[in-house]
Amino acid sequence: MTTDFVPVATILPDVLEPGLHVVFCGTQAGAASAARGAYYAGPGNKFWTIIHEIGLVPERFAPKRFRELPRWGIGLTDVAKRSSGPDSRLRGDHFDVAGLRERIVAHRPRLLAFNGKRAARAALGMAAGSLSYGRQSGSFAGAGIFVLPSTSGAAAGYWSPEPWKELALAMTDLDKP
Q1: Is the Cβ–Cβ distance between 19 and 29 less than 8 Å?
Q2: End-to-end CA distance of the chain
Q3: How many CB atoms lie within 10 A of CB 127?
Q4: Could you give phi then psi for residue 148, rounded to 5 degrees?
Q5: What does R_g of the chain's alpha carbons equal in angstroms?
Q6: Which of 71, 124, 131, 147 has the fewest Cβ atoms surrounding its Cβ within 10 A?
Q7: Cα gap 118→27, rounded to integer Å
Q8: 73, 24 Cβ separation under 8 angstroms
Q9: Short-list 85, 57, 95, 79, CA closest to 145
């Protein structure tokens, strides 16, 4: 029997270190990512394509290279670390907002970019419909906040590269004196 929700130990390891420019935070590992042991590994996921297209990395990476991202000031995590599968199966107790906050405080990235509104709503405690894409006012554990359209193939109907381009511009501005 196959299940869509698998509660276990952490599915994917965080890719975090002090001083990153941006940490991308997803909701949870999708089924393909959990099976392959790599972030954004689903065949329809646009993550690796978009971070290359907007200039955050010099080439399009295969998901298995996710551990290399800190070289370019990029980190990865999820707000639900101990589950995998479709987001529709998540319940409130699957989210570990306190753990996310601790990880962000400990590593101090300049920006926290939520890959999809579901992750942002859970972490920020906001209701559906109250978030827009792009830079948000305020901060999360000291990091500036972006909410980006999900790169998941399941969310293709909401896709737009524009907020991702806005993030890339903001990252360029971080390096200006």
Answers
A1: no
A2: 57
A3: 7
A4: -120, 150
A5: 15
A6: 71
A7: 7
A8: no
A9: 79
Is pLDDT larger for residue 92 or for residue 133? 133
Distances in Å between the Cα of 76 and the Cα atoms of 1, 28, 128, 177 are 31, 11, 24, 26
Q: What integer pLDDT is reported at residue 175 of this predicted model?
A: 64
Percent helix, strand, coil in the chain, to 5, is 40, 20, 45
Q: What are phi and psi of 86, to 5 degrees?
A: -70, 145
26 CB burial (10 A radius; 0-12, 13-18, 19+): buried
Half-sphere exposure of 112 (CA within 13 A, CB side): 28
CA distance 68 to 71: 6
- As given in the structure block, the two tokens for residue 111 are 């920006």
Tokens of 73: 């000031």
CB 57 within 8 A of CB 74: yes
The model's pLDDT over 50-86, given as tens digits with 9 standing for 90+, comes to: 999 999 999 999 999 999 999 999 999 999 888 777 6
Question: Tell me, what amino acid is at 129?
Answer: G
